[in-house]
Amino acid sequence: MALNFNVQWIHGAANCAASTDPRIQTHALDPDTFVLRESKCLSFEAPFLYLLAGSQRAFLLDTGARPESGPLPVRETVTRLLSGRNLDHVAGHSHSHGDHLFADEQFRGRPRTRVAPVDSPAAIRAFYGLSGWPDGSASLDLGGRKLTIFPIPGHEPHHIAVFDQRTGILLTGDVLYPGMLTVRTADWGEYKKSAKRLADFANANPVAHVLGAHIEMTKTPKVAFPLGTRFQPNEHVLQLGKQHVIELNQVCESLGPTPVRTVRDDFILTPQ
């Protein structure tokens, strides 16, 4: 089944005080694959969350950023999207930055639900059954739908990638998305290794779509919105491709031992 990327993401508002946009926008790529976007009026980060359902369990990647006002109905939204399905739940995280785990508490204590840790590679490795860190991988069976999970530290020490064999979607969090890819100089070595790990994986597997956690680029090549932007008309599409994984690795390899700000059409490598 072809995935449906025909969606206009709600990209903020010129006047958030008067906005009637939903707190979380949802879109079904197919009947079992959902993308959720937190409103930019709640958080300029406007992170994307991913909900994948199999016949036995559902996997949610990330739980959103702290809203500046009011509730963030992540659990309510997940329950609505999976209405009528008798599934166990796993709530995981691309990494442990605060804009990806705010609603964790909504899932703690929920029946038949496990919430992944974020405090150490060892805890994450044990939770997923990873064969090693950072070079190991694990398989998570949702019931007729297998996910491959592997570490990609560098942007943040606990970062993981998730590959869905059914759809060919590779979820890359904050390591690769249409925006400003930030990395501390001290973590550059790990980031470079993770970029190569992603490229090696993409070359060896049928990666069809690469979906990250944000959109910060405009549709104009090489041009990003300023950090903190609340209103993003003319924003880049969410989905990247296998070629962008290869491109990121090539950029990292070309820079040697020190990161340098590098502007490409669809992302900007941004040392901190």
Biggest sheet strand order reads 1-2-3-4-5-6
CATH topology (level 3) name: Metallo-beta-lactamase, Chain A
Oligomer: single chain
Instruction: Please give the CATH class.
Output: Alpha Beta
Helix content bin: 10-25%
What do we call the CATH homologous superfamily? Ribonuclease Z/Hydroxyacylglutathione hydrolase-like
* Contiguous uncertain segments of 5+ residues: none
Strand content: 15-25%
Q: Count the beta strands.
A: 14
Structural class: alpha/beta
Overall CATH architecture? 4-Layer Sandwich
Global morphology: globular
Biggest sheet statistics: 6 strands, mixed
Order of helices and strands: EEEEHEEHEEEEEHEHEE
What's the N-to-C terminus distance?
A: 41 Å
Mean pLDDT: 97
* H/I helix tally: 4
- Number of structural units classed as domains: 1
Write down the Rg.
Answer: 18 Å
Task: Characterise this structure.
By secondary structure, this protein is α/β, with parallel strands linked by helices. The protein has a single domain, classed as Metallo-beta-lactamase, Chain A. A 6-stranded mixed β-sheet has the order 1-2-3-4-5-6, with helices on one face. A 5-stranded mixed β-sheet has the order 7-8-9-10-12, with helices on one face. A 3-stranded mixed β-sheet has the order 11-14-13, with no helix packed on it. A hairpin with a 4-residue loop joins strand 7 and strand 8. The protein has helices at about 75-80, 120-130, 190-205, 240-255; strands at about 25-30, 35-40, 50-55, 55-60, 90, 115, 140, 145-150, 160-165, 170-175, 180-185, 210, 260-265, 270. Helix 3 packs antiparallel against helix 4. The radius of gyration is 18 Å and the shape is globular. The mean pLDDT is about 95.
